[in-house]
């Protein structure tokens, strides 16, 4: 088995006839944070959503090439998608708690995974809320509607929900885009914590955020992965002039 | 926007609100006058005894207890069949098929069913259940026929309710490792619950008051039914017979009063369910 948790080789992706991603090669190693940056519409979300096969849900979409997660081809017809999604959790751009209580939000995934013991579920809820630093705030409000929390709490609740089913990889699609700077900072701190246990791929609009939180960064432009490198090198010594233009703000 | 056109917009807005308010009031007044009319003619016989005793002398006196029970049984059979079938069809149409000729045929068929007058359903139920399947006039024949009649309503309302569940919620379910059937049973259907329930209750309202369908398939027996395989008489049929055959206009009005009040209660309950926050 290779050292990388996620490995794409010559990966192409099509929405119908539109080629959204072209020969992507990317390797994500364990317990690292990988940031995907690039201008709007370049394919960041698409690349992220291929990694847990959420793209399957779009009629007419097609993947060509190799994408290995945990060393196995996930687009193999025999691959168990639900198993994959259990191991590769996802946090969405806008905080999206279910219209139910804090407790139910987290318990959902645990029950889906087949755990029905009350004690176990409660323990998992506590663990995951503690992991996102919400337990002390919410432990007396487990029956509070998730959607009535502040945006910051909602997004952390969503992260807690994702990690409650114990994935190994966390995919985050612009998790801070609807948060204020203080809440953003809290999420970034949380990412540092989570990195110890999870491998994270994060899409972000903000280069500064990428520079702050990630170990590796990939720069996408119109469906091409222009450059993929250690974050430091990519920002200090970009190898491609297009990357340089983008990070120096000359793009567009 | 100029102040001129703003003024005009405001005017139309006010006009719209005014007209719809009048129409609402008109509907309410109409319904109340029907209720009052029935009350005026039928309230004299109304008593607890009317609800809980058997009809005597073909219904000239006594109560309508067996008739209430028969009506309830008919509705129960109809919903027992139509609800799972209707929700299942709606789930199939929205979740398991791409839009195509199959969904088009099913939808078109269901629309057509919705437009068929109930007496035709009655005739069809008579030909199929009573005659061909040799079930005779009985509650089961009637309930099955009623089920066919309300099926399109349940399919349509369930479909709308299911479609109104945001795509993002489904995606979220999948991203947490749910299978398709788990997403449907644990996210989509609970979210669509209110819409689906409304459809069911509207159907119930229709089934309670249905006459033509029932008279052809369930018959007119005034006895207390001892099983689903016996003939029985629903409230609206009872009303029809009392009035039509000149047995007793007073008793007919009292029956109608009970029937209409029941339908009112059912609809109020539907409103309550819809307005209640989940
Ligand atoms: N469901 C879809 N069907 C067809 N085309 C799509 C679909 N989703 C995205 N696209 C197209 O694919 C390209 C990449 O989209 P994607 O959402 O991955 O971009 P992105 O980098 O995440 O952009 P943003 O920063 O705006 O979120 C865009 O040109 C977009 O128009
Ligand atoms: Mg995006």
Structure description:
The complex is a heterodimer of chains A (252) and B (278). Chain A has one domain: P-loop containing nucleotide triphosphate hydrolases (Rossmann fold, 3-Layer(aba) Sandwich). Chain A is built from ten helices and ten strands. In chain A, the strands form two sheets. In chain A, strands 6-7-8-3-9-10 form a six-stranded mixed beta sheet, sandwiched between helices. In chain A, helix 4 packs across helix 6. The longest helix of chain A is centred in the middle third of the chain and has 14 residues. Chain B has 278 residues and is mainly α. Chain B has two domains: 43 residues; 229 residues, MetI-like (MetI-like fold), CATH 1.10.3720.10. Helices cover 77% and strands 1% of the residues of chain B. Chain B contains eleven helices and two strands; from the N terminus they run H-H-E-E-H-H-H-H-H-H-H-H-H. In chain B, strand 1 and strand 2 form a beta hairpin. Chain B is globular. In chain B, 38% of the residues are buried. Chains A and B meet through helix 2 and helix 3 of A and helix 7 and helix 8 of B. The structure holds adenosine-5'-triphosphate and magnesium ion. Magnesium ion binds next to helix 1 of chain A. Magnesium ion (MG) binds next to helix 1 of chain A.
């Amino acid at each position: 088995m290779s050292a990388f948790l996620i490995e794409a080789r010559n990966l192409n992706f099509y929405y119908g006839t539109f080629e959204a991603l072209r020969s992507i090669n990317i390797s994500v190693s364990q317990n690292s944070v990988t940031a995907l940056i690039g201008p709007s519409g370049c394919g960041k979300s698409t690349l992220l959503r291929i990694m847990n096969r959420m793209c399957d849900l779009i009629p007419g979409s097609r993947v060509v090439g190799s994408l290995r997660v945990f060393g196995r081809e996930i687009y193999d017809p025999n691959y168990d998608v639900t198993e994959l999604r259990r191991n590769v959790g996802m946090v969405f751009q806008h905080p999206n708690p279910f219209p139910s209580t804090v407790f139910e939000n987290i318990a959902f995934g645990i029950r889906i995974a087949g755990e029905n013991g009350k004690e176990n579920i409660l323990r998992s809820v506590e663990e995951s809320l503690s992991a996102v630093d919400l337990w002390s705030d919410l432990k007396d409000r487990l029956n509070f509607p998730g959607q009535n929390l502040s945006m910051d709490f909602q997004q952390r609740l969503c992260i807690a929900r994702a990690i409650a089913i114990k994935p190994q990889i966390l995919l985050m699609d612009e998790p801070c885009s609807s948060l204020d700077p203080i809440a953003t900072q809290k999420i970034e701190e949380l990412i540092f914590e989570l990195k110890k246990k999870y491998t994270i791929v994060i899409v972000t609009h903000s280069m500064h955020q990428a520079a702050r939180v990630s170990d590796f960064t990939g720069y996408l432009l119109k469906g091409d992965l222009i450059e993929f490198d250690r974050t430091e090198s990519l920002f200090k010594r970009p190898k491609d002039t297009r990357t340089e233009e983008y990070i120096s703000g000359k793009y567009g | 926007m100029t102040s001129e056109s703003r003024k005009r917009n405001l005017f139309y807005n006010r006009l719209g609100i005014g007209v719809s308010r009048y129409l609402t009031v008109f509907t309410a007044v109409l319904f109340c006058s029907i209720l009052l009319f029935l009350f005026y003619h039928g309230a004299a016989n109304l008593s607890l005894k009317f609800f809980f005793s058997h009809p005597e002398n073909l219904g000239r006196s006594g109560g309508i207890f067996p008739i209430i029970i028969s009506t309830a049984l008919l509705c129960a059979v109809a919903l027992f069949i139509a609800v799972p079938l209707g929700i299942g069809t709606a789930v199939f149409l929205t979740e398991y098929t791409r839009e195509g000729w199959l969904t088009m045929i099913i939808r078109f068929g269901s629309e057509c069913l919705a437009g068929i007058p109930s007496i035709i359903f009655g005739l069809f139920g008579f030909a199929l259940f009573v005659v061909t399947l040799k079930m005779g006039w009985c509650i089961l024949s009637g309930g099955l026929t009623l089920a066919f009649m309300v099926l399109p309503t349940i399919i349509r309302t369930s479909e709308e309710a299911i479609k109104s569940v945001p795509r993002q919620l489904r995606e979220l379910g999948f991203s947490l490792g749910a299978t398709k059937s788990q997403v449907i049973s644990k996210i989509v259907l609970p979210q669509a619950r209110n819409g689906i329930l409304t459809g069911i209750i509207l159907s119930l309202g229709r089934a309670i008051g249905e006459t033509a369908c029932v008279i052809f398939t369930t018959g007119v027996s005034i006895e207390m039914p001892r099983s689903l395989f016996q003939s029985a008489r629903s409230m609206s049929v009872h009303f029809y017979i009392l009035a039509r055959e000149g047995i007793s206009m007073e008793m007919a009005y009292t029956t109608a009063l009970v029937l209409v009040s029941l339908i009112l209660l059912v609809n109020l309950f539907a409103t309550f369910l819809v307005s209640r926050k989940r």
